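USER: My hope is that you can spare some time for a protein that puzzles me. I am handing you a single protein, as its sequence and its fold in token form. Walk me, if you will, through where the backbone shape changes along the chain. The protein I mean follows directly.
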Amino acid sequence: MFILLLTYTAELAEIEPLMPAHMAWVEAHYHDGTFLISGRLVPRTGGVILARAASRDAVETLVAADPFTEAGVARYDVLEFMPSRTATGFENLLN
């Protein structure tokens, strides 16, 4: 399991035009089962994605293809962890 911490490295004026392409990228990875939850940071300085992937290399390849990364307006910190406990109803995250 991975936490993808997205940090904007440019002003929101540069981020906003890329948002539709970024959201299409996000949607594609929800559709393929990689992304489990995501959202903006408060204050709006980036975002967080909880992802499931086969390897760290796969995640690094994935984030390199984010339109934000390709445009150089954001960077990702990738944190890998092994989930061992969940709240009731989220047990499927342990698989």
